[in-house]
Amino acid sequence: MMWEESRDNFESKEFAGVLKRYKQMLTEQRTEFFDVADFEFIADQYIDKSQFSNALQACEIALRQHPNSIIVKIKKAQIYLSQLKLQKAIHLLKQLEEIENTNPDVMMMLGTCHNMKGEYHRANEYFKKAELYAFEDRDELLYNIGISFIQTGAYEEALIYLQKALAENPDHEPVLYDIAFCYEKVGDDPHAIEYYNKYLDIDAFSESAWYNLGIIYNRQEDYARAIDAYDFALAIDANYSAAIFNKANALSAIERFPESVAAYHDYLRIDPDSVDAHLYLADCFFQMDDYGNAELFYDKTIRMEPNCSDGWFGAGLVMLINDRAIDALPLLVKSLDINPDCAECLNALGKAHAALGSFREAKTAYQKALELDNEIAEYWLSYADLMFNQDLFEEAIKILEEAENSEAYCAAILYRQAGFYIFMDNFDAAREKLECALTEDFGAHIDFLENFPTFLLMDWVTELIQKYNIPGEES
Prior knowledge:
Largest sheet: none
Helix content: over 70%
Radius of gyration: 34 Å
Shape: elongated
Number of strands: 0
Distance between the termini: 69 Å
Strand content: under 5%
Number of helices: 28
């Protein structure tokens, strides 16, 4: 901060033994003279270690030896501010204002105090005075005003002063970083990326900047760039756990599951008690059809966190896929006890009940799933299949007609309608739906034939598929 600028001068002075001599004086309970620069150095040593009580004691001793020192009084106010003792800081700074009303450090600190108290109008008045009276090191003062706004979450206001600071000094690294940070906070990703890259042009070895870039790319679903950014962060710090975790998530998002599994394992070596890492690792194994490992890590997840609904749900899905509906049922029920509004879990519960021949329970589960979320085609199809398998053909068709008029509309619903109509010997309706489906998504006819393989024996079905087979597409 601006009142810390004199630290640069400390490097060119000989302070060896100053702190040792000061501590010895305290131990021996005697008085020894130190000049103002010595006391400032001593206080800063304590401030750097967040030992504010010791720093304050140094200032008190300094003021007994140098009662009129403005520098020491400013340092004391700085310590009060660091301790969030705003009223004490303001009281001291107002005394200083009476004799130093053009001192930009005093004005800036008063502005910071009022800013932290939520008194933004008064804060801005002092900040304007600080800017007016700053003739040297204006970039530092403007930067610190920006930091004051960052501390209160006023990122738009912070950007105004940070951009001014950058205009004063285009190579000010912290300014570039915090401008990027503010743009990130206000959701302006393009500018955040621009300024993080400007910062990295100066300091390519900032793992936090690379990591933050990764976060932004991840938010934009630009996972390849996100992974590259995390890799740069990890090249600088191989144990940067957040970068490892987010890299694993990004790899999973683009279905690079084996690499994602490896990354999650790397993360667990650092944080072996992470519930999320165990859960996401299980999800990866599930997506890889490695149900043995998926079951293992879902079980670990729910042992670590019994209230993890996703862990119970995942474990239930593994049972369901392995045709163990009776084992899936209590796991899915437990998940819904924790999170009753999970439509996906209700749909799975419906499948489990259907597999066990519990029609009424399955119907209720599917209806609840659709009440929560009617935009997922699978939920409509599951419900329609339940009715169809009970020879309730008209009810099944009505469900799909309702789905066709919902946000869940897609080719899969049309194909299923065509299949049902064929079973009902309504070939005109079946042809109409099949043609619409083939036009909507020709490739999805493969799933249609897997669901209704005997339809390949019908010449008109195969002829219709061939009619819509665009050269180069799989038939």
